[in-house]
Amino acid sequence: xxxxxxxxxxxxxxxxxxxxxxxxxxxxxxxxxxxxxxxxxxxxxxxxxxxxxxxxxxxxxxxxxxxxxxxxxxxxxxxxxxxxxxxxxxxxxxxxxxxxxxxxxxxxxxxxxxxxxxxxxxxxxxxxxxxxxxxxxxxxxxxxxxxxxxxxxxxxxxxxxxxxxxxxxxxxxxxxxxxxxxxxxxxxxxxxxxxxxxxxxxxxxxxxxxxxxxxxxxxxxxxxxxxxxxxxxxxxxxxxxxxxxxxxxxxxxxxxxxxxxxxxxxxxxxxxxxxxxxxxxxxxxxxxxxxxxxxxxxxxxxxxxxxxxxx
Length: 311
Hints:
Low-confidence stretches: none
Number of strands: 11
CATH superfamily of the largest domain: Aldolase class I
Structural class: alpha/beta
Strand content: 15-25%
Helix content: 40-55%
Number of helices: 14
CATH class of the largest domain: Alpha Beta
Distance between the termini: 15 Å
Mean pLDDT: 96
Number of domains: 2
């Protein structure tokens, strides 16, 4: 059976690799696309010309479809959007902003647009804005997240019942059984983030990848809701954030504590104490670094074998 997501992106498997900050460069995106999924370059951690370079290298590394993920809360947005069009990118995932602002621009240039949401309310707004599909992301997911803490198990069927466009499930998906569960709930495909961090192709620092492998249940927490909710792996910086909350820190004090480039410091440069370490709850289930192609293959093998058991 071919899903709507496979048809929309012209891909072999209904698996999308999340466009994660400091992890999703051209190497990871190309590897996932070559393996039959949809690779995404994460623009959030790239200056405009760096993004252009990654797009060009990805085009040379794969002849399969790939896309770019753009959170709309970062600077240089107009330049980034222009580069995406100029470089002939065919698929864009947007998040953290109003899809009405950029969807018409991309559609005018023949680009398929997907918007990431954390609630039914925003899924409906994205559909009304004219996007081609939505990613509904439960609060289990790593990185920036929804304030309502709606789980994937609740969010997917809720969104499915109320939209007419294709639906991609995200948050807490790292193996084929979880993929099958999401699709039984109504998803047409899945977006996998944290599992692809623990691959050789991810641009994250090796120390961060090892921290993900060592994560246990309860080692991540959704915090900093006053700024932009983010799920973090617990470390010294996380402890400092919690101590600030205990002292009833103001928003300005939290901003000062966060500072600039703290995510880069942790996930890309390898500062496991002072860095911001964004990862999902499912990190507790990840125990091995393996190639992206192997991750895609294992996802599909377990998905098919689990589906056969249900028949």
